[in-house]
Amino acid sequence: MSDLIELYLTCPKGLEGLLAEEARALGLTEVREHTSAIRGAADMETAYRLCLWSRLANRVLLVLERFSMRDAEDLYHGVHGVDWQDHLAADGTLAVEFSGHGSGIDNTHFGALKVKDAIVDKLRNREGLRPSIDKLNPDLRVHLRLDRGEAILSLDLSGHSLHQRGYRLQQGAAPLKENLAAAVLIRSGWPRIAAEGGALADPMCGVGTFLVEAAMIAADIAPNLKRERWGFSAWLGHVPALWRKLHDEALARAEAGLAKPPLWIRGYEADPRLIQPGRNNVERAGLSDWVKIYQGEVGTFEPRPDQHQKGLVISNPPYGERLGDEASLLYLYQNLGERLRQACMGWDAAVFTGAPELGKRMGLRSHKQYAFWNGALPCKLLLFKVQPDQFVTGERRQSASSEAPSAPRQPDAPVVHEPARLSEGAQMFANRLQKNLKQLGKWARREQIGCYRLYDADMPEYALAVDVYQDWVHVQEYAAPRSIDPEKAQGRLLDALAAIPLALGVDPQRVVLKRRERQSGTRQYERQATEGRFQEVSEGGVKLLVNLTDYLDTGLFLDHRPMRMRVQREAAGKRFLNLFCYTATASVHAAKGGARSTTSVDLSKTYLDWARRNLALNGFSERNRLEQGDVMAWLQAATDSFDLIFIDPPTFSNSKRMEGVFDVQRDHVQLLDLAMARLAPGGVLYFSNNFRKFQLDEHLAQRYAVEDITAQTLDPDFARNNRIHRAWRITLR
Q1: Among positive and negative, which fits the CA dihedral 568, 569, 572, 574?
Q2: Which ranges constitute the DSSP H helices of 188-315?
Q3: Is 472 within 8 Å of 510 (Cβ atoms)?
């Protein structure tokens, strides 16, 4: 082997430029960038130094051979032609990784098998000894990359990926890889800040990856100093004396770095379950004197290093993976921005996020942005200078509900940095909410209604429904038409979410967002989350349980409030039947009104359990039956008569528990005929549904007395949306 070798270093996508700079500083020459990799020329000392000191690379590959190939036979012969006896003993262990396709190789497993066969055949000796496969800890890890007909055959000097430093045995739900965390720190200017003696704080530190990587940079510790097994450890070309020299130098540098007065590096984490794992990681890295982790919320974050020291605040807030995460995340990012403005004046700040639109809502202008990838997710690193001229505030902001101007500030009074003011669109939305609240709030208080619709796409640009559930707010975003730019729609949604807490005076943590789209089958009943958080609300003298987070609907259809109250008024002494009962709220009202008995039928066990809890909450467990079953089949088998029947079917249902499919337009005649057969003389059946194109079959009026009562079943909060449902009163002729 000549003194000069070719090295190929892989890295996460987006880090190529940074890795090239780092590799040049460590001695790599003739550096060229590729996607997720760089390559260059080096000697063995530089190769070892890159393994030990690269904070950004995943792997350091030593290129053995490049050859062109047209098919699998070319692959075999090209690999077989290498002098493998210089690299691996006949009884050694081997692992092969293959990437790329083409030239007759469409399957990476087949390609790896061909490479393995060529190596094993070359090394099989006269006694029949041959290398065996060990995928976990082989003596030699071979990599072949196929790129447009060229095979690049390499030895992996790193072994396991270099991002695995060894200190992070415990991690949170969505940890950054260590080399990505190091790249973010480098782009954020931490090496310069650390050299100047600056501080570092992470208000959402998780298990401390940023903190440990920052301390290793500041203390001049080689990131892989503690690694015991390398890809070259059992390689026959390994030069132990050269490696020991470099390793001893790195040890001496680490000892000198750790002997310096530690920098102030602190992390804060709200989740108590992550505190000890984070501290354990810090201790394994040998950095307990440099890094401290405390439990703390973003809302109380305030770095307090010694001697009024400034530095870098760095954070990797959540990006949002679930439907409805936008609400809680918006307030989290706003809270972070507010704490930066209030408690970190003069600091640098770096926010690494997969949701850069949320980063714009922090009330600070980023002076630089860098594109990264976290796995397959595109991310941005937003850099801020926390200075008043970077605040997106203008003059002091009045709260959305304030009408009086603020008093002028006295000359000696401290400057109060207010949260970022609302955008023009958000302020318009806030004004509309307050106008509606002024009108509907009086009505709701007078009628003792705690849950009502406050806003329903009143302004076309803000296609939301905003419902008040006592001291919570439930927001449903209607899916934007394809003609609307998704970024513009997302911006308007965030504007609205920013306005709601200010306009309504509610805790941002009590705003829940869901996205409502055209539903098919039973999707409206599918679980959206698993928080299992039920809360009690009141209506017409009864208590009901709602769940604002887990399902698209909350368990209480607000538009049917007048119908439930009508049932309560008319139920005294009657046998009440509730079909497609959902959570049986109408049955609770019937029981409250003095019904002799109630029977509630639904196919869903989940909702019948919810119904059982609603009844029990009001002391109505007795004489109130809950029946699980397909409503049509149940009616066909039923023999009892009922004095009062309520039917509010879904538009469409294809549950696995029922035979066939229910379609309200197609099947309502059969449904009503079956139900009317169970109606006692003098009884009343109420029928409603939410299908906007629904047409009641005209022949029903020939058999029954049918009255459209839709207008009587709309309270003021749904007056602006009088097509929310249709309702009829039906009796026997």
Answers
A1: negative
A2: 190-195, 209-218, 240-259, 275-284
A3: yes
* Bridge partners for 30 per DSSP: none
Neighbouring C-alpha atoms within 13 Å toward the C-beta of 247: 12
Residue-level length of the chain = 733
Whole-angstrom CA distances from 309 to 163, 199, 338, 551 are 31, 7, 20, 48
Q: What is the pLDDT of residue 522?
A: 41
Closest CA to 6 of 59, 51, 60: 60
pLDDT given for residue 429 in this prediction: 94
pLDDT in tens, 459-512: 988 999 999 999 999 999 988 777 778 888 888 999 999 999 999 999 988 999
* Nearby residues of 178 by Cβ (< 8 Å), 6 or more positions away: 163, 164, 165, 168, 209, 212, 213, 223
pLDDT for the residue 521: 42
Question: What structural domains does the chain harbor?
Answer: 5-156 (3.30.2130.30), 178-219+260-390 (3.40.50.150), 427-517 (3.30.750.80), 541-732 (3.40.50.150)
Distance CA 526, CA 528 (A): 6
pLDDT in tens, 691-729: 999 999 999 999 999 999 999 999 999 988 888 999 999
Q: Which residue has the tokens 């829940």?
A: 512
Residue identified by tokens 């890809």 is 231
The predicted structure's pLDDT at residue 323: 43
Q: Contact 400/418 with Cβ under 8 angstroms?
A: no
Question: Rounded to whole angstroms, how far apart are CA atoms 611 and 613?
Answer: 5
Give the CA distances from residue 555 to residues 151, 377, 402, in Å, rounded to whole numbers and listed in that order. Answer: 61, 35, 35
| For residues 415-433, average pLDDT | 76
pLDDT value, residue 478: 86
- Tokens representing 362? 């922090």
**Residue-wise pLDDT tens digits, 262-286:** 999 999 999 999 999 999 999 999 9
Span 311-360, pLDDT tens digits: 999 999 987 655 456 777 888 898 899 999 999 999 999 999 998 888 88
Helix, strand counts (H, E) of the chain: 19, 30
Q: Whose CA is closest to 284, among 233, 230, 209, 231?
A: 209
Beta strand segments in 604-665, E? 624-628, 642-647, 652-653, 662-663
> In this model, does residue 198 exceed pLDDT 80?
yes
Cα–Cα distance measured from residue 338 to residue 203, given in angstroms and rounded to the nearest whole number: 13
* CA–CA separation, 588 and 530 (whole Å): 26
Quote the tokens at residue 208. 């401390």
Reduced 3-state DSSP string for 610-641:
HHHHHHHHCCCCCCEEEEECCHHHHHHHCCCC
- Cα 477 → chain centroid: 17
How do residues 81-102 score in pLDDT, each as one tens digit? 999 999 999 999 999 999 988 8
Bridge partner list, 551:
527
What whole-number distance in Å separates Cα of residue 410 and Cα of residue 405? Answer: 15
- Of the candidates 49, 46, 55, 47, the residue with the CA atom closest to the CA atom of residue 18: 55
Q: What is the DSSP letter of 406?
A: P
Return the residue matching tokens 């920052």. Answer: 214
CA dist., res. 493 & res. 475, Å (int): 10
Q: What is the pLDDT of residues 575-633, one digit of tens each?
A: 999 999 999 999 999 999 999 999 999 999 999 999 999 999 999 988 899 999 999 99
Tokens of 192: 């310069």
d(CA 7, CA 143): 12
